User: What shape does this take?
Amino acid sequence: MRFLFACSAALGLMMMVTTTVFAHTSPEDIAARCVGNVNGVVERCQSAAADETAECVQKIRRLLADGQERAARDAARECIRSATTRTENCANRVNRICNACIDKLVSMGAPQLARRVNNVCEDAISDLRTTLQREKNAIGNAFGG
Assistant: This one.
């Protein structure tokens, strides 16, 4: 929960700064800044995913070792729900950043840059989905299958 709050606060600050920066920069600078922001969101989300997955797998294995299979399955469901929610929130942040950047680039007459930023954004969303699938696989593998 603290992670989501921190990310939300950071995003708000980033959007405020991004809006101010847009006023006096070239399209290339805006595109580079947008790509950097998107990559930063993906990196933070993937780091959070790795940490959360490791904690979940440990908890599931501990519960299984104690003979609490039902509790382990409940924990796995909660971990997958949390991972899915986090991934959706990260993807939404990426989309908000991308939409603002692409709109600005198009309005500045830089559609080619806007397309390149859009490609980066699509790759970022794909990376987030891949990370979620890996999390689900790791949680499933904690049960030995």
Q: What stands out?
A: Residues 34-141 form a domain with the Topoisomerase I; Chain A, domain 4 fold (CATH 1.10.132). The radius of gyration is 19 Å. The CA atoms of residues 46 and 131 lie 7 Å apart.
